[in-house]
Amino acid sequence: MIFVRHYAQMMLSSSNKVATACMPTSNLCVHRRSFMSGMLCPSSLRPFPTTTAVLWQQQDRGYRSSLCASAAASRLPSVSSHLSDSETAHWTEILTKITKPQLSAMKNIVNPRTPLGLDIEYLRGVNRKVPLHDYFLKLKKAHPTSIILVQIGSFYEASGIDALVLAQFVNLNLTGQKNSFIPKAGFPLDQLPLHIFTLNQEGFSVVVATEAGKAAGGKTFNRKVDFVSTPARPRYFEPALADADGVSLLPPRPVPPMLGIASSKHGLTLYTMHRDTMLASCMGGLTKEGLFCKMHAVGYATPVLLHDSIHRDTQLRAEIVGFIQRTASVQLALTAVFTGQDADQGFLNEVKQHMFAEELQEGRDVAIKMVPVRDDGRPRPPYLSTIMQLGLGKHPMGIPSLLDALGGATMPALSRHWMHSLLLMPPAHEHALLLQQAVAHYCSCDQARPLLAVNLTPNKIVETIESRRIKIEFFRQLTELIVPVINYLGSQAYRPVVEALAKFCLEESGLGVHAHNQHLGSVEGLHTALQAVLQEVQAVTVNPEDVGTSVDKSVDGLAPSSKVSSKDQLISISKENLKRLREANEGFRLEVKADQMREVVDMVERTYLEFEEKSLQLLGFLYDEKEKKGKMATGKDQPYVSYDRMDRVSAVMSPGELPPAMDGQQLIRATDRKRSADKKMGTIADSCATSNLQAASDAYLAATELAATKAKELLIGLCANLSPQLSSLIMASQLAVVMEALSVHAELKRAHGWCLPELLPPQEQATIPAQATHHAPRSSLQGSSSSSNQSGSTTSSSSMVLKDLRPYYLEPTDCAVTNDVELGNKVWLLTGANMAGKSTVLRSIAAASLLGLCGLMVPAKHARIPAFDSVMLRNFSGDSPVEGKSSFRLEMEDTRCADQESTALSLVLADELGKGTEVDAGTAVCAALATRLAQRGSTTVFATHLHKLVDLLKPLAEEGKMEYMRMGLQQNPQGKLLPTWRVERGVCFESLAFNVAEDSGMDPELVHMMRHFYGRIQAQASIPGREVPDSSTSSGISCQDSSDMGMDSCRTHLLSGSSPGSVQGDTDQEDEKGEQQKQQQHTGNAAQLHDKAVHILRETVGSVCSPEVASAEREECSSSSSSSSSSSSERPLPPVWHVGPNEQVAAPHARNVSVVYIVRYAGGQLHCGQTSDLRQRLRKHRSKQARKPWAGPGAAMDYVMAPADKLRVLEAAATNKICEAGIPLVSIHDRIIKSFPTSNE
User: Fold this and answer.
1) What is the pTM of this model?
2) DNA mismatch repair proteins mutS family domain: which residues (predicted)?
3) Alpha-carbon distance 119 to 135, whole Å?
4) Element spanning 457, H or E
5) Are 2 and 79 spatial neighbours (Cβ–Cβ below 8 Å)?
6) Are 448 and 1139 in contact (CB under 8 A)?
């Protein structure tokens, strides 16, 4: 509080006011705006905690008047220029997010109405200086809503509110003096990538200014803006930072688009801007709920741009801002304003200011194409309630995630994000069929697939190539991405996949709107384009696999620790240090090929050899001189050639006194790269050189700098050559993401027994036999329809059929009750007891429908999904105090949405509607909505405890527009009712509320009181016995239990939302301590030994397995198996499948398939093993482990299928025979069974 006294002293000029100005500061409570009305004040002052909050009003009114007059007469300079109202609101919102206690004092000092939040006039009055304040202020005026980082020496620093942001969101400590009253923060230069990544992820835009050489006079530095990084257009850094385990600290992440919202008499308009394709889309005529669904589906970067038409509607603006704050993926959900009578052009202008500020400052033209969104029959995005009930929202509230159930947890981050976006924005029907075609082929193809690298986002590709801020690591990542995609495009086995997904990605990415990109939708066109890109890259850049091993150049080349035995040994040690020098300065050899700049490379080679020759010549001379004088008795006096990793220079070191000359040349001290003689740190002070040696060193270093510059120019030129191929690179990136996501999904869910549904075309109303609804190519995936209630019946093709439907989060090993669902254009009234599974059934139906609309597999044995235009799942939710809405108000908004948005093609699933108010009113709400939806023809399920609905909706049942369904109950031997979790015909009036209360551990006496009061209520109501409505009409439901396990186990697994078990993988784990077999004498190369071992494996399996078993195994995958020959007509050899070093196991064989295999490591070593989880076992062999030095990437595998109960026998038998044939194996631990049974035993 001492600064209050300083400020008062500065303001008061009359001597009779000095005493009052120096009054104890505890008696002052300074308002952040002014000391009193009409008085000029430091805007940065805010209320401070005091023990006695005595206001200025407690002082004499005459004194206050004279104080005002004195301040006005002094004509103090005004505070720094104020920000606009919108900019002030921006920083005010940010200050509300500064919540760390240690920042509270500094938070009270800053003022969001001034740039940087600092009042410079006040700071001058209290003798506080802000380093580079004028430069900070200049940048802040140009970028008023961005974080400003300025390089000062070896640190980046921020001041004012920006410093508080770094302390809050990046976890930095404030710097400077304790009582400086100037928030400051900074960090070392090498931490910039990580902090930029964090700030962008939190929703901040960052401006980075760097030093650009010293100004005239040499005392200060010139500075310039290096780049601007925003959430919608982040800056990428290469190489990416990694932790000690090699895990990237900056994982690849998709960049969300920038959104804009405008309002008109036709409804709301949503604008979307993607940086990679330079396309802005415009979708008009949206309702508020439709807008929120679209925003949640596409995602968005902050700030969200709101047209002034939104700001004029205060209530609408508040609802949009509230939605953004609830659903944004970052803590800071900011908005900005764009204006203009033409909202389209206003959005484009504002986007250019936010995303292309650097281009505009440089005077470059930014061309953005505005594309109206077509109504292509795409289903509407799921509403927020549906998203939350399927575990797809920001806070899943304990609900199992549908994304994880699809295999999202095992997908790369980019593939997981794409799958999530697909569920939130289901594709058009024809695009869903393309995805389904790809998934079906993954499920049926048994050929090994190329191993994809999902490492580059389209945004990163575009930004890196167009910015020309290039590093060789980017081209290596680009090569890793392109090569497997080209292999996919050239694979005949997976051609149906790439044909379908190339069309899908071309349309979904927006590239298809440009006529010159149409060729990318064909396999041949995309293959040709990517081959051209690969040739361009490989012609310039160096393949790191072609470069030999290197020495560790991260340490200094120090003197030998002991006396060397000879001059030759000393020279050998010195050459190692010279090698470190060479690798540190000749990094261009790892970037571009030498033939691209042969003249410069020859110059580097020539100058290095000259430098090496003169260095070793001087080293030999010094060695001989010290040897003559007897100074080589200990190692500390011997000369050597050093390497300094900081300056990347080498010098001949000679501790002690130097000889006067060598061959007539005077010996001098060597100089470092900065030409500062005789360094006083490290070992350079003991250096020795001649003028010729120093000249050779300078020439070599100059040649390496020239080569590095030339290499950079070549990489920039390569970027220019790749610019016309950006569309093909975006396609490759999209294809890799989608193919990896679908392959993982198909592999996992096929093993779990899921099926691909039949997708009905839109507006189909014909009548077809139910048993003929299977597609022949997918019959093996979907199963057969043999339920008695469907046999011989007919059903509308618009009906949804789900056979053996189970909760999506339960695996086959879990005990789950499955249900058969046939649901047409009518209403189901689903009643049932508490904990009977009503919500689980609704959630399962919603999940299966959404997955089918997305072209994915569903948790059933057979499914038929109509072309729903929307899936609405509504469950009971609490209130929203932030919005001032009760739980019933939220229910009514959901009811309004279901009424206004649903059509005859909609699926509406309502759970506990009307629960937020009293029983009669809630019953009326449900009855009214059910009647409206039944008349409309929507496919609807109402799950409810409101039993009066049974009588109210009886007319709908009589008209055939509604069916009564219930969750079944049964009595245990003790006479207690328990749920069966089966859907069946009829009505259930039991609630089992008191049973649930007892099971939850409630006090028995309290439960007894509940039963007592319930009996009194029933007696007062005097309700006559209810007559269950006749539901003899077709129910469309049959129930089946998928397991014989007990009811308690079933109940635990079904309703807990957890998955207690998983598919059993390996039947036996490899011994971690297997000894490596001794090398044996053998003839032939490694490939011949490998082929011989595989042949022995086939013979072993064929001899042990019976012909019937072997034949059955071959028939299972005979459709596309690799060719194999039989050694005997009586006992044919089983087929062999091969997975190359850059391939992945085919989905049908990845899990739950018993095999015996031969692994060939990259070094040629062989290993024999067995497993029932082939993909996991191959991943283990390809992982680098210290205890298995031969393992690592590049391992290939050949495997033969075999019965699970004979895997151990076959592994031991094959290992024995391979060893007896003289073929070395890396492990013989499993060679434990000397004799084994044959097929005759």
Assistant:
1) 0.76
2) 906-922
3) 15
4) none
5) no
6) yes
